[in-house]
Amino acid sequence: MPKVPRVGIGVIIVNNRKILMLKRKNSHGDGSWAFIGGHLEYGETPEEGATREVLEEIGLKIKNPKAVTFTNDFFPKEKKQYITIFVITKYDGSKFTINEPDKIEALEWFEWGKFPSPLFTPVENLIKSDFKPAI
Questions:
Q1: pLDDT band at 2 (very low <50, low <70, confident <90, very high)
Q2: Residue 135 falls within a domain, yes or no?
Q3: Which of 17, 32, 39, 104 lies 20 to 30 Å from 8 when distance is taken between CA atoms?
Q4: What's this model's pTM, rounded to 2 decimal places?
Q5: At a CB cut-off of 8 Å and minimum separation 6, what does 111 contact?
Q6: Domain with 36 in it: what CATH number?
């Protein structure tokens, strides 16, 4: 069976010119910083997938998510390829917590362009594309 790309979702949650990021754990990209996200499931729109992933991972109900761009991401070590769709939403001040401590080591807010290192490949590729959210 041929290898085919998977579809990933990265959710850019904006709060006062800062972006919520997580430190990945126990998956490809372990130890790297990424946006909240995961896989697009069959039948979902990117916005529905983003809403589901954020609720699953940190218990936050997002409003008015909007798909804004995508990257084509290769993970040679794992022999994986992803098309990552980035969805943007504004943080409404609701409480959130790490619901998946086996997958998330930390959650922190960062200014756009002042991200920690190392970055997850899709985030690196997004930055290289010169994408800048209207925040």
A1: low
A2: no
A3: 17
A4: 0.95
A5: 17, 18, 19
A6: 3.90.79.10
What range defines the domain where residue 47 resides? 6-128
Q: Is 1 inside a domain boundary?
A: no
Say if 134 falls within a structural domain: no
Say how many domains are in the chain. Answer: 1
User: Which residues are registered as beta bridge partners of 39?
Assistant: 8
Helices (H), the chain: 46-58, 121-128
Paired with 106 in beta bridges are: 23
- Cis peptide bond prior to 118, omega within 30° of 0: yes
Distance CA 110, CA 15 (A): 10
CA quadruple 69, 84, 87, 120: dihedral positive or negative? negative
- pLDDT given at position 28: 85
Judged by DSSP in three states, 101 sits in coil
